From TrEMBL:
This is Pyruvate dehydrogenase E1 component. It comes from the Bacteria. Its EC number is 1.2.4.1. Component of the pyruvate dehydrogenase (PDH) complex, that catalyzes the overall conversion of pyruvate to acetyl-CoA and CO(2). It catalyses: N(6)-[(R)-lipoyl]-L-lysyl-[protein] + pyruvate + H(+) = N(6)-[(R)-S(8)-acetyldihydrolipoyl]-L-lysyl-[protein] + CO2. It comes from Massilia agrisoli. Keywords: Oxidoreductase, Pyruvate, Thiamine pyrophosphate. Residues 1-33 form the PH domain. The keyword Transcription regulation does not apply.
């Protein structure tokens, strides 16, 4: 009988019938040997099902024993030259360490991390040498989300490959002068190197899941052959605490993303201490992922443990392995072999006998699975070959492996960036780096001759896999023509008499036009998060279908309606459910497809502006880092346009957030023609010219008439401000009213009141982008600062206002800070007053909300009169008369405090 059966039999300490148990186990063993594990699994499932139906209580557990998932006799051994690979890996460890330590000896505040790569080096080496394909003819390349804190190791590899110079290594984290290397993976800063940003932590796992699904989407729609491509995402076990890390693992299983491999580096430590000191993070993650339907592969123990486990006839070693908590495991690797003998094997007399013939050094050399190339190769091969489900590899490593007493397995490891001379000497000796003692104080980088066998091997392995990684494509090879503005004539013209529409409806018309375009139609990616009907976009369901790899296995309940819910294997819509982060991750995948897939895609992600930008701000910043190109459409925008919904639905700050992202082009258009001009120009910049910008455009669900495009105003719309309507030329007094979004119309109505009630003319300025106006002013201000003797540049908004007279009042549906951006660029001596919706939102009608926030036509009128009074052109009593006339309560509390 096999050792495994003896072990299982012995584990049943209270077995009343050991003979019967052995017979059942013998039978199961025979099935496995003769019919395979699939048949054995089927029979076991049938037995469990029968027992439950007969009333037996069988507790569910998604955990397996605390041992390697792949037994030693089933491992596929690494086919590479392991001697060469070990030396290459050691040189990379050394250079990564030298890069960080040298940087911090020169400038102690630069920071950097050594320990993450130290624990990951074996895994990255196996991947780069044997699995990860670069983009080449016939293969689009694998996509790598590298654990952010391991970047020094990636640079160290690229240095040996000749892709990064020694000067760049010496300028690690010194980028301002253009010679250095970014702290973490940043495509914005290293545009032909890094594919994806993976810090902030948690965003890598989330984005990778939707990236894998987007590859399936492209393949199903016939846009790109992605069948043999994989998405590999590396993350730390502490990183899995981030809600984003785990938030989409159910979607990955549901969508059968067998092109996705998540590798969790389980070194048991976070920055401050153990991840689960009192528990077992690997077991916890196994339960989560296995329960979610993933293929889970645990790589816990190195090969030395295989012999001990084979001797474990009574299962004592496995039991102790399971009972030992992570805090203890961390302690073992921070000490020595004698400590491990006493505190681990000493937990049971039989275990002490098991290692009686082993020296303390032998015990110390019992490695964790993540540091053995064969174990790693076997796990990677399993992930590569797995079909029908995503794979997670839970790989146990030692934080700071090789750093010795200065950091190995210690709570300080993550922050350790300054090693003393003795620690450097120990690392040199441990990894056999050929640097003499007299050179050690300089911590020189090591790079062997190009014709050395190890270097030749390094290049041969990457040549066999198509080229070097990571690498990033900056522009797509294809050039797609963009429709002229006239293609959107149905929203450029004024609305018919008596006809009212919202800018959301105008957008639906625009996207419908684009879907019919022969050049761009198939490249449009509508992304929705269970609000299609809110935005009037349900008509797209039947027109282009919702992407689902299974198609539609049911007849929709609304099949008898024109706009029924239709799922399709080649559907064009990505419907993400109630999931803004997922929608944004899908958008990022599509918005960077020009780089990752050499296919230009044009995503339109439409969401509640409050729920979207508020919840995905970190992802939006990552999109800027990734040089994303696409449209974010913030529906029901502004604090007073979404009447009746309440505080957490009303957006008064999304444009403040959007303004913080330098390559985001934010617009708050009021009219349909403005939306069309902005979208068409966005297509020109992002598709035709392949500029690395993306657009945030807010839309309203409020219906009103639209004046149509006045020829010549296109430039002003795109710059962010233009004259919409001139006031009465004969009036003695004059003011300038600026507005955007839905509140611009309140400024128009205020102009009517000013003229009718007070004889004052008002020019109306539409400001589709106060942020772009502010950026232009800041650019001029900066240029004038550093060019003091040159002719001063005049900000765009200053040049507009210089041609006018009277005080200026700006009103928006956002916080005052939004319009305050342009105060510095108002002409000197002119009053500039800002009204906005600071404070918490609340539920009511639009009319009442605008009264509450003091941004309606009456408050705008009073603000204009007050400004005139302050300039001395009308009496203060006129302002008081207006306050009384319009029923404004002087004692009304400030809405900010309510």
């Amino acid at each position: 009988m096999s050792a495994q059966l003896d072990q299982l039999t012995a584990q049943a300490a209270n077995d009343p019938d050991t003979l019967e148990t052995r017979e059942w186990l013998d039978a199961l063993e025979a099935v496995i040997e003769n019919e395979g594990p699939e048949r054995a699994h089927y029979l076991m499932e049938r037995l469990v099902d029968l027992a439950r139906r007969r009333g037996a209580t069988i507790p569910f557990s998604s955990n397996t024993a605390y041992v390697n998932t792949i037994p030693a006799h089933l491992e596929e051994h690494c086919p590479g030259n392991l001697e060469f690979e070990e030396r290459l890996r050691s040189w990379m460890r050394w250079n990564a360490m030298a890069m960080v330590v040298k940087a911090n000896r020169a400038d102690g505040d630069l920071g950097g991390h050594i320990s993450s790569f130290a624990s990951l080096a074996n895994m990255l080496g196996i991947g780069f040498n044997h699995f990860w394909k670069a983009p080449s003819e016939g293969h689009g390349g694998d996509l790598l989300y590298i654990q952010g804190h391991s970047s020094p190791g990636i640079y160290a590899r690229a240095y040996l490959e000749g892709r990064i110079s020694e000067e760049q290594l010496l300028n690690f984290r010194r980028e301002v002068d253009g010679k250095g290397l970014s702290s973490y993976p940043h495509p914005k800063l290293m545009p032909n190197f890094w594919q994806f940003p993976t810090v902030s932590m948690g965003l890598g796992p989330l984005m990778a899941i939707y990236q894998a699904r987007f590859l399936k989407y492209l393949h199903a729609r016939g846009i790109a052959d992605t069948e043999n491509r994989k998405v590999w995402v590396f993350c730390g076990d502490g990183e899995m605490d981030e809600p984003e890390s785990m938030g989409a693992i159910g979607m990955a299983s549901r969508e059968r993303l067998d092109n996705l491999v998540m590798v969790v580096n389980c070194n048991l430590q976070r920055l401050d201490g153990p991840v689960r000191g009192n528990g077992k993070i690997i077991q916890e993650l196994e339960a989560d992922f296995r329960g979610a339907g993933w293929n889970v592969v645990k790589v816990i123990w190195g090969p030395g443990w295989d012999t001990l486990l084979a001797k474990d006839k009574d299962g004592i070693l496995q039991r102790v392995m399971m009972e030992t908590v992570d805090g203890e495991y961390q302690n073992y690797k921070a000490k020595d072999g004698a400590y491990v003998r006493k505190h681990f094997f000493g937990k049971h007399p039989e275990l002490l006998k098991m290692v009686a013939n082993m020296t303390d050094d032998d015990i110390w050399r019992l490695t964790r699975g993540g540091h053995d190339p064969h174990k790693i190769y076997a796990a990677f091969k399993n992930a590569q070959d797995n079909k029908g489900s995503p794979t997670v590899l839970l790989v146990k490593t030692v934080k700071g492996f090789g750093m010795g007493k200065s950091g190995e397995a210690r709570n300080t490891a993550h922050q350790t960036k300054k090693l003393d001379d003795e620690a450097i000497r120990e690392m040199r000796d441990r990894f056999a780096i050929p640097i003499p003692d007299d050179k050690l104080k300089d911590i020189p980088f090591f790079k062997p001759a190009d014709d050395s066998p190890e270097m030749q091997y390094l290049h041969e392995r990457r040549k066999a896999l198509g080229g070097y990684l990571p690498q990033r494509r900056e522009k797509a090879e294809e050039v797609l023509p963009v429709p002229e503005l006239s293609a959107f004539q149905n929203v450029l013209d004024a609305t018919a008499e008596g006809r009212e529409i919202s800018t959301t409806q105008a957008f639906v018309r625009i996207i419908s036009t684009l879907l019919r375009d022969q050049n761009l139609g198939q490249r449009i990616v509508p992304i929705l998060v269970d609000e299609s009907r809110t935005f009037g976009m349900e008509g797209l369901f039947r027109q282009i279908g919702i992407f689902n790899q299974q198609g539609q296995l049911y007849e929709p309940v609304d099949k008898d309606q024109v706009m029924y819910y239709r799922e399709d294997k080649a559907g064009q819509i990505l419907q993400e459910g109630i999931n803004e982060a997922g929608g944004m991750s899908s958008w990022i995948a599509a918005a960077t497809s020009y780089s990752t897939n050499n296919r230009v895609m044009i995503p339109f992600y439409t969401f509640y502006s409050m729920f979207g930008m508020q919840r995905i701000g970190d992802l939006a910043w990552a999109a800027g880092d990734m040089r994303a190109r696409g449209f974010l459409m913030g529906g029901t925008a502004g604090r007073t346009t979404l009447n009746g919904e309440g505080l957490q639905h009303e957006d008064g700050h999304s444009h403040i957030m959007a303004a913080t992202i330098p390559n985001c082009m934010p617009y708050d258009p009021t009219f349909a023609h403005e939306v069309a001009v902005i979208v068409q120009d966005g297509l020109r910049r992002m598709v035709a010219e392949q500029q690395d910008v993306f657009y945030y455009i807010t839309l309203m669900n409020e219906n009103y008439t639209h004046p149509g495009l006045k020829p010549g105003s296109e430039e002003g719309i795109l710059k962010g401000m233009y004259l919409l309507q001139e006031g009465d030329a004969n009036a003695k007094q004059r003011v300038q009213l600026i507005g955007s979004g839905t509140i611009l119309r309140e400024s128009i109505f205020a102009a009517e009141l000013l003229l009718k009630d007070w004889g004052i003319a008002a020019d109306i300025w539409s400001a589709p982008s106060l942020t772009l106006v502010a950026r232009d002013g800041q650019d001029c201000e900066r240029w004038n600062l550093v060019n003091p003797t040159a002719t001063a540049r005049v900000p765009y908004v200053t040049s507009l206002m210089d041609k006018t007279s009277g005080p200026i009042v700006a009103t928006t549906d956002y916080m005052r800070l939004f319009a305050e951006q342009i105060r510095a660029f108002m002409p000197k001596g002119r009053t500039y007053r800002v009204l906005g919706t600071d404070g918490f939102g609340r539920s009511d009608s639009r009319v009442k909300l605008r009264e509450f926030f003091e941004v309606n036509r009456y408050y705008i009128t009073v603000a204009a009169l007050k400004s005139l009074a302050e300039e001395g052109t009308i009496a203060a009593s006129v302002v008081a008369d207006a306050v009384a006339k319009y029923g404004i309560d002087p004692n009304k509390p400030n809405p900010v405090t309510q």
